[in-house]
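Before relying on records like the one below, remember that each one covers exactly one chain. Contacts with other chains, cofactors or solvent are not represented anywhere in the record.
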Amino acid sequence: MAETNRKELIVGTGDDARTIAALTREATTAGAGLPGFVWLGGYRSDMTGSKAEALCVNAGQQGRACLRFDYSGHGASGGSFREGTISRWLEESLAVFDQLSSGPQILIGSSMGGWIALRMVQELARRGVHNRVAGLVLIAPAPDFTLELMEPELTEAQRQALERDGYYEEPTPYGPDPNIFTRELFEDGRKNRVLDGLIETGAPVHIIQGMADPDVPWRHALKLIEHLPSDNVTLTLIRDGDHRLSRDEDIARILAAADGIAPRV
């Protein structure tokens, strides 16, 4: 089994430069013909979470390449979290994908990472790169979450804070520090909408969604499917699944989806 290596790259220039930390596992001869895995984490998550770790171990057992990294302001990467936007994190994701992976890859996006994965497919297609994405596994995907899921639920106090201070905070059950949502994040989210037309991935998509998810309603996954009409799309609904989907049985489903979505290329 190939070792996992720590790598860093600089994204952006001048005052906008930030160091992005990544963990890579190279493919071995046993994995010849198997697409690699690229992990795209969620908002405020990092590359050492249980799902990402399990994916890397699974890849190593098959000889697949595996790539995971932290967005700026997350985990081991540099940069300010408050400066984070979908465009900024998308730029970093594409840079990591370009520089630290080669050949066909399966994008595995969790929550916000699902939105990033869909935008990556669009940007790669715009470049004329049509053969690098072999498939997508989207875990509790949250495309357009700022517009579709958050804005309708903003309280008057939160709206006033966005206008007055440029951000608001709210407690989260996923860690001790509050979540911070900025006005720029909301404004930039509108520029990165994907649920406003057809999403041509050119590759199979497997969506895994918990029906007891308090953050991303399972009907949001159904709405996403409506925008993927021309692709091979599979939806797995887990009746008692939460947003994290980190139980052993949830991770087993995720690994099976990743293994089965594009067995050979």
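The longest helix spans residues 112-127.
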